Structures are given as C-alpha cells and as structure tokens.
C-alpha cells in the first residue's frame, strides 16, 4: 500500500504515455485548483473539465423563458443566486429585474411555499435547475405544496441526470482516458451506476471526495487503472474499472430513498444540454398527474446559438481548457459573461479565471 506522499511523487514524476482525465464535477475542479494539485502533476497527466455543472449545461432558451415570466404580470421568478447573471439570448434575470421584472433570489426551494401562501394572487415560477442531488428537494417541495393546498407555484424544470451526459462523453470524446466521478451526484446514484459504462467503454471511473488526500488518491488510482488497462500485463483479477474512494458518503446502491421520492413526482425524458445537444432520458419532468405545477418545461424552444467566438461547448466537453477560448478574460469575464461557465460557482471558466495567477 503506497502512502499519499508516494502517490503524489509518482504523479509528479510520471513519464508514461499521456493521459487525459476528466473531472466531471465543477466542485472537484475548484478543489483541485485550491489544493494546488494541478500545478505539481506531471505534464503527462492532463486534467480537463466536463459537463458536471447543472447551470453551465442549461440552454440559453431556458433563461429566455425565465426572463419572459419575470416580465409577465402577476408572476415572480424564484431562483438561486448563481442563476441571476447567466445570460440568455437577450438578457439575464439580473438585468430583467433591473428593468422591472419580478425576480426573487432564494436559498432553498421551500422558501417559495411561504412566499406563495402570503401572495395567493401571484404565480411563482421556480427555476428548478440541478442534477440528481437537487431533484429530491423539489420532490419534497411538491409534497409540501400538495399537503398545504398551494396551487400558485409552478416549476420550470431544467433538472437533469448526469449519467447520460457522461455516457455522451464516452461515445463522443474517445481521447478521454478516465473519469473523476461527481461526488455529490454519486451519493444519490451510487457508485454501481458507473459499472456498465466502465465495462462498455473500457475506461476507469473513480468516485472521490473533495479533500486534498481524496483527490491525490483519485488521480493516482485513475492513472494506475488507465495504465493497467492499456498494458497487456494488467492484473487479470481486476475485472472492474470502477473504484469508490468516498465510502463514507457513497455506497454502491446510493440513496434509494432520495431516488424513490424523486420518481414519485418526476419521470425521465429528452432534454437539451448546452454544448451537447439533446440527450434521451436525461431530463426530469413532472409526471402527468402533477402537470398543473409545470410552467411549460416540455415545450421550451430549441437552444439558441452561442455568441460568436464563444467556445463554451468545447470547454464543457473537455476539448479545450477555458483559457484557450479567445473570449476568456477579455470579451467574457465574471462581470460581463458570454456564457454560464463564467458565472456559475461550479463553472470551469469562472474557476480558471479566479485562479489564473
């Protein structure tokens, strides 16, 4: 068993053929920068970002619909803070509010139940954005709304499953050699969900936490698994390419209770991802019996084209690093973003911009 220092020394001195490893989750990207790990890795190990930020993969057409609701009489849009500055094709929700639209920043979806009860003539549209981690909260909110008989709340859903996006990367980006799996999502899905992907595409998947030691362990394990899989001398006893190094929070089966409560109200359907296009069974929509709470999530327009020069799609899919985009830090910066990757707390461009020194 190698110590953490031996693993780090290996990652610093590695001279084997190049590896491209994707950290799917933006929280991992931020933690890797904060820890300084990226700066000490061998040049043969390249870490790339992936589509693991739910705000970043939300299409501009969704923001446009939220903006339209904010300007609709007797309607209020409720959203989390990281959605406020995300640009649509015309403006952001923050700009819509400055123009007189009704936009309410919330810290929890449950706040909206009390807001709606206090203003029964106002319709509250919740910008419901997130992955498997967030969806159960909206399901529990539906419990509360039905129990309290509150009917003036509707969800405009951009809830998604991260797993179809990871599979899309496996299919479309053959150069990716391994995946640092999203930690928070894996708490709900379980580590077992990656087994079919690993078997089908022959790529390693490692689940890890967010501390420095977790990250060093995970990158070392990914490099080792990728190398062993390439080599004819691989240990035949190691049939699985999935490793769960976050056992204190993630089990093989995941949080079945959270998945059950989500399934009670939501069902999977085709959804549009910024940078990836439409993916089957990747979106979560309210079931027919709860459609009265839906704000038109099924009939959103197709996504609008990215601004000229914006390479957000290439950043999300790991084809380029954020600072390779010609707009990075000039035409696109946190104060004047061209896309959500620059303003979301989990967006790769914003994280790279904050750490550009």
Describe this structure in words.
The structure is a single chain. The chain contains 14 helices and eleven strands. It has a domain at 312-354. The longest helix is centred in the middle third of the chain and has 19 residues, at 212-230. The radius of gyration is 21 Å and the shape is globular. Strands 4-3-5-6-11-10 form a six-stranded mixed sheet, with helices on both faces. Strands 2-1-7-8-9 form a five-stranded parallel sheet. Mean pLDDT is 93; it is low at 232-237. Helix 1 (4-13) packs across helix 11 and helix 7 packs across helix 12. It is 36% helix and 19% strand.
Helices and strands, in order, run as HEHHEHEHEHEHEHEHHEHEHEEHH
Q: Biggest sheet: strands, sense, closure? A: 6 strands, mixed
* Chain-averaged pLDDT: 93
Helix/strand/pairing category = alpha/beta
Main attributes of the structure:
alpha/beta; about 350 residues; single chain
What is this structure, in a nutshell?
The chain is of the alpha/beta class.
Give the SSE layout.
Layout: H1 4-13, E1 19-25, H2 26-35, H3 37-40, E2 45-52, H4 60-70, E3 75-79, H5 93-98, E4 103-105, H6 111-118, E5 123-130, H7 135-148, E6 153-160, H8 162-172, E7 178-181, H9 183-189, H10 195-201, E8 205-207, H11 212-230, E9 242-244, H12 256-265, E10 266-273, E11 277-286, H13 312-316, H14 348-354
Parallel strand pairs: 1-2, 1-7, 3-4, 3-5, 5-6, 7-8, 8-9
Antiparallel strand pairs: 6-11, 10-11
